[in-house]
Structure formats: C-alpha cells, structure tokens
Known about the structure:
By secondary structure, chain A is α/β, with parallel strands linked by helices. Chain A is built from twelve helices and twelve strands. Chain B has a single domain (2-336), classed as Rossmann fold (3-Layer(aba) Sandwich), CATH 3.40.50.
Amino acid sequence: MTRRHPSVGAVRGALADQPTMSMFCTYQQPDLIELFGAERMVRLPIAENTMLGMAVGMALLGRRVLVSIARAAFLFTAFDQLVNEATKWRYMSDGQFTVPVVVRGLTQGGEQLGAQHEHAAHGLLSQIPGLVVAVPGSPNAAAGLLRTALVHPDPVVVLESPRLYAADWASLPEPEPTDAALPFGVAGRARPGRDLTLVGIGNTVATCLRAAAVLDRDGLHAQVVDLRTAAPLDLDGVTAMVRAAGGRVILVDEAPAGVSVMSALGLHLVRAGVVAPHRLDLLAGAPVPAPVSPPLSAALLPDEEHVVSVARRGANR
Amino acid sequence: MIASDAAGEWFSTGAGTGNAQTMDLSDAYREMVRIRVFEEQVLRCAAAGQVPGSVHPYTGQEAVAVGVLAARQPDEWVVSFYRCHGHALAAGVAAAGLAREILGRVGGVCGGKAGSMHVADRSHYLLGASSIVAAQLPIAAGAALAEKTAGSGRAVVAFCGDGAFGAGAAYETLTVAAVLGLPLLLVCEENGWQDHTPSDLVRHRTPGEIARGLGLDCDEVDGNDVAAVHRAAAAALAHCRAGRPQVLVAHTYLRHFHAQLGPQPPGEYRPAAERERWLAQDPLTRVEASLAGPSAASPSAASPSAASRQRAVEIREQVTAELAEVFADALAADRPDPASAVTAVTAAAWPPGATWPEAVTVREPVA
Lengths: 317, 367
C-alpha cells in the first residue's frame, strides 16, 4: 500500500478546522465532496479570472477560499484578479478588509507540456507586493507550506512542481523531517555542510541535494539551503547560513536570472560581506519558452551536473 | 418588460410588484442633490488642481444609485467601480470622509490610499470599487456566493457601466451566477458611451440583450426616473434574495463627460443634440415637480407647484451649505503621514520584519 501524499492531509485538515473555508476547482473531487459537502467544494467553469475574482469576493466577506487552479500557467488568465484585485483590496481599503485566498497550481517538471503550460513563474510573481509565493521543494515542504498558507490572512500562491505528485514522489529527496507547518520567509537548511552553500528553490532543491551527494564523494561537503518562499525572501537567514559555511555560494534557480529572486539574494550576500563576488555563482534557467522535446528542455534548465561542475571548478580557486 | 422608441428612450412598465419597501421622494431628491452638489464641488477642486489623480463624475446618473440603494437592506454589500462617488454617498458613506479621501487628506475613508476610484467603507457595507473595467463583477459574485453559503438571505448589489459588458468577466460572472443561483443584482448604468467610444460602435448586442441571451432575468428601466429605478430594483432584489440573480439595465446619461484628469476639463465628443435631449431628462428636475405631492407622481406631470419648487430650492440650499462646509473643512485638513504609506499591504509588515509602522486595525461592520 502506498503512503498518502502529505499535502492531502494539509488540505483536509484545513477544511476540517475551518468550516467557513471553501475550495474552488474545475474538476471533480468526489472524496472531498463526500467529506465536506458540495456547497463548500465549488465546481466552476474553466474561467480562471472569474474563479479567482470570486475567491477574492468571498474572502473579503471573511470566508477563506483555496483555489485549485490546476496549472500555474492558468494564473496568467487570472492575472488581473491576482495583480490588481487580490493583492490590492486590503491596501486600497487601508486595512478594512483582508483577502485570505490561497491559489495552488502545478509548475513544470517531467511532463513536457511545452511553452504554454510550463513556467518557473515564482520570480515574476515575487514582484507583486504583499503576495506570498511559496515554492515547495519536497512533498513534506508542500504540506508544510500549504498548512501555513491555509491560515494566512493574505493572498498566497503555492507553486508546486508536478514532480512532487508524480508516481515516484515518495523517492524524492526529503529534507523536511515532518509535514508540519513551515513558516513563510524562513529558509531551511536542507542538508548541512561546511565547504560551500548551494541554494535552491522548488525543483532545484532536489537538484542541489543530488549534487551535494556527488560532491560529498569528492570530499567537498556542501550545505543545501531551501528558500521555501520566493516572497518573502529570507535574506538574513540565508546570510547567516552562508556565513557559517565557508564563503562559497552557488545559487540555483529554474527562473531566468533577470527575474530570479537569487539575483536579489546574491546582491544581499555580497553586500553583507559573507561571500566575495568571484566566489558567487548563479545558475539560472534560460530566458526561453519551454520546448516539448526532452533534450531541448534539458538544455535550458540547470541540472545536477551543472551544479557539480561549477562547484568543482570553484573549489580550485 | 420595456418599450423603446427610435430616439432610444426607455420606459419601465412598472416591474415592481410585491415590494414592501417604500422610498420617500423628498429623501430621494435630497440624496440626488447631495450627489450632484458633491460632484460639482469635486470638479471645482479638480479645476483648481486640488484633486490628486482622476475624477469620474456621477452627475446625471444620480437616480440610479439613489433608487437602487434605497431598495437594499443596510447590511447588503455594495460593489462599485471607478465612478463610485454616487454609490458611496447613496450607500451612506459620510461626505466628509469621502471628500477627504478624494482630496488626499487626513480622515479620508481609505487613508488616502484609494482616492477617487477605489473607495471602500466597511461600516456602510461598501465592499470596494475597482478601476479595472468589469473586474468588480466576479468579486461581487464571490461576495454573493459567501452570502448564499452563509444562508444569510442577503443579496449583493454590483454596479457597472455598459462598457463592462464588452469584457469577458461579464459573460463569466453572469454564467456562474446563473449556474450557482447567486443572490446577485447587477446594475448596469447604460449611458451609451465607453470612454470616448459610442457603445453602439463596438457592440453587437446591448447589455440587456446579452443578459437575456444568457438566460438571466433582466429588466430595463429609465435610469433618470428615481421612482421607477427604485421599483425595479426592489422587485429584482426580492428575486435575488431567493437565489435568482438579476440584471437591471438603467438607461441614463452623464452630464459631465467620462473623466477628468488634472485641472483641464475633458474634451466633449458627444453630439450636441444627444446631450440636449438627455439634459432635458435630468433626474433631479424631473422629480422637482412632485416633491410636495405623493411619491407615485409621474415625472411627466403638470408644471411644478409653487410649494414643490420652494421645497426643491430649500433642499438645494441646505445641501449646498452642508457640502460647502464639508469641502472647506477637507481642504483645510492635513495631508496624511507618509509613514502610513507602507501600512496595510498585508496583515503584518511587508516584507516581514521591516521596521515600518504596524498595519492599521481592521474595522468591524456596524450592523
């Protein structure tokens, strides 16, 4: 018998704890309807802009909504409601209202769905003031970040890699000891190490952990940091962890460098004096749409071999 | 049902039945005058360069806000859009707080963060206003779903212009409202223009035709006849509260054109004959004939009696004096503390740990 995915418990727990919480989706959820009733499990037409707008309206009246938008790519259809409404009504009302809306969507990884379905959008979304952008790097992190999202008073987007839900999810590297709630804006030490620091987010957490295992055999002990949220960005926490591990840093992100939160993080680390500029590397995704053929998509994203080779090269400096 | 003539005038044949709520015509007139005079004050301030941002005046459409909101219960939420001053005043928002908000002064109902286009007032069940065309419609539908889910028996009133019916959000919202049986009243203020574009140039069907085509109940009413608007809204709201969403198209016209940004008044693109025809149908002057008589009087009744005219003059003078004081007071008020610019982005400071002032306290509605 296979283990139940930890995020299932996070969602069901929130629905059980909060009788006024609803979930919006465009597909059938017979198990959740059975548990929580069709009135709270609202099925809607494939109209993401209105779906998110309705969630905002419900949330303004004090009822939390979890919007299961299926693919994070569909958020772009709902971009007005995300950028101009969900994240603005608290501010525009000067705090008279809050918008407790959580949007969940799948990003990219192992599905080869191409340019319109696959994005590493966390860097882009992290530029919207007040929006929490949670990017779990493991199944337990998905559950932990969902638990926090589902009690958060403001809008949260949870960007989940399809790898976290693939048939072999249970064999992914799992740095989180439990599926307990994880705070926003607090990076985690996914693996201890004294020689250098690898920083990942989402898919690149597993990339960094696998690279660290390879480097370990070279006698190079890499610490791995999981940012967990692209916004808020834990600049001080990562700075402290880097300071403790020897001043060599490789930042690894699937988002292109221009919108990568790693760019802001790298600047902060240099200004904080914990890493010299020539000992800091950024491995980012190429600013190219996602192609379908696997060798093409692989050429555009940082992988464990890139991380290993850059780490080895740096070790000789 | 509605009837129309070639000139585009619309007459409600009195859809309102089973309405227990009545509206005092003198009260309605006073409310319409308040909106008219308030907007004239705002435009005066704009011309003097005292309004930061834009103004979308509600002048000419007063009967819609006043007639519709006289039919709502005071704890039924209102969702508005950028032309929101009239909706806000008719919903009960204090003129002083609204004026200070528009002028960007201390004591504004949204702390100077909303300005003219995004006013919200929790204590009067004004949920907010969006300056993105049609974006308020899904939000209103969500509020209606919240009321339905709570089993409150309350409806939600949303306003939009006829331009909103060109946006996908209108189609989506109406479809979902019908499928879910939402207690939503969508009031479309059909004034024939979308910014500088005549609506008929860019649409194939009118808002009423679209709503009925999607299978929704839709009444159309002379939006410059406050009593007719009130009757139609009261009837529609009764259906909404029973879970049947309604669209009410109110045919009306703006006295001042679409928007004013800065001190210069906007150019007037609308044909003179059209303007004159509508100005002769002004919603205020149409009821001035009936103030002394019973509220059921027809706007096309005989010339106003001396008593009614006198009553109208008194009301205008009172309201003008009251609002002159409100605006003088607002213009004398301080400007907001710059430190408050960073509050209320999120519940705590954003980003977390920033040494900015704490977010403002959430105010609870007054039932």
